[in-house]
Amino acid sequence: MALHLSIGCLCCLSPMRGQKQKIRGVAAESSVKLNSEEEDKVKLGGSDLKVTKLGIGAWSWGDTSYWNNFEWDDKKLKAAKTAFDASIDSGITFIDTAEVYGSRFSFGAINSETLLGRFIKERKEKDPEVEVAVATKFAALPWRLGRQSVLAALKDSLARMELSSVDLYQLHWPGIWGNEGYIDGLGDAVEQGLVKAVGVSNYSEKRLRDAYEQLKRRGIPLASNQVNYSLIYRLPEQNGVKAACDELGVTLIAYSPIAQGALTGKYTPENPPTGPRGQIYTPEVLTKLQPLINRIKEIGDSYNKTSTQVVLNWLIAQENVVPIPGAKNAEQAKEFGGALGWRLTQQEIDQLRSLASELKPVTGFPVEKL
User: Fold this and answer.
1) Domain-located, residue 271
2) Where is the NADP-dependent oxidoreductase domain (predicted)?
3) Which residues are catalytic, by number?
4) Is residue 347 part of a domain?
């Protein structure tokens, strides 16, 4: 996911225990049902790490600068915990966080990594066999220089989560300087056994290729590039990032895949989102989105699916894409699981793209253009 900070900082159901659950949707006759092999986990790029085809973003957990209406309390904490448990119960075991989510640096209440580590520990006490694929990120802050800064930050993240290693470690955004050192740090983390796979985030095509080649010289695959990607924000298709990921065998992890809720049908011109999101998804923008949102709902109704599930399925259908919608509560996490196990027809995929192409792109994360 992207990072949105205050100006002073930076721009910005339950399966049986031990049994893997297969999630299948109720599809119309025109839908494409997937076999069990296609429903299995996918490898991230050329790494050996396998994750579920859909992940969960923990950006909102502990955050008070962008999400949660600038407040955090026990109710929101319990909701985040139920979101985690519902995700695991639904078979979605890939969880993405970052050292800056909920941190003091971003004026948060409690670090998202701390919460995730706590949730994992509590879950394992009840179910020791549960496996969670954890992804977190290094913040390329201006005063952080060289490969050692990456290792130091990673060790701090591991301490917060009380883990000895993580599955995926990513550079959150390109640094103002020192990027080659950061990539070296990722390679060191792999060689020291602190991570299973490494990736980048908000990287342009050129930066992606450079990082790929630098790691390749050490025999380490670049597993992923996490970027803003949704039906109404398709910059990765237009700036060469998606094509480069496909060419190089790097998985594209899509953050804000439901456009921070704008594509769910929850918001209307009369009821726009609150907080910073309201500055992006204004009543004017939501008015222009209505024809697309209406069509998404029509398609969802034909499959007995929600608009959220349709939008996520559209991304999965692009191939080599793992969406990570943010889950604040159990209801959202359960709903996300319904995006798996079925597929939109090609005609529906193309029609939604055509409708979305008529809209002006929404605002993205500035660093992806560096």
Assistant:
1) no
2) 53-355
3) 101
4) no
